Amino acid sequence: SATPLQQNLEKLGGRIGMIAIVVCVVIFVIGVVMNRTDPSNPGSPSWLYMILIAVTLAVAAIPEGIPLCVTISLSIGCSD
């Protein structure tokens, strides 16, 4: 059984993940509509470049460090 803090952190991580996915989809659609291409390879299709951008943003937005930040914050709070 998880503690209330763990349950809330799980919910927060899920919300951040869903928001990140929605933002990545919106960025993908806008990039394809605006026909954004790779500056280093202008001949490549815009959808391929925007998939790479969207996946990069999604991976960067995954909240892996939330439990670590909470643990550090709680330990600093207990030491005062």
Short description:
The protein is mainly α and 80 residues long. Helix content is 75%, strand content 0%.
What attributes does this structure have?
80 residues, mainly alpha
Provide structural commentary.
By secondary structure, the chain is mainly alpha-helical. 75% of the residues lie in helices and 0% in strands. It is built from three helices and no strands. It has helices at residues 4-33, 46-61, 66-79. The longest helix is centred in the N-terminal third of the chain and has 30 residues, at 4-33.
Topology readout:
Blueprint: H1 4-33, H2 46-61, H3 66-79
Poorly predicted parts = none
Distance between the termini: 30 Å
Average pLDDT metric: 87
Number of strands: 0
Q: Over all CA atoms, what is the radius of gyration?
A: 18 Å
How would you spell out the order of helices and strands?
HHH
The biggest beta sheet, please?
Answer: none
Strand residue percentage: under 5%
Assembly form of the protein: single chain
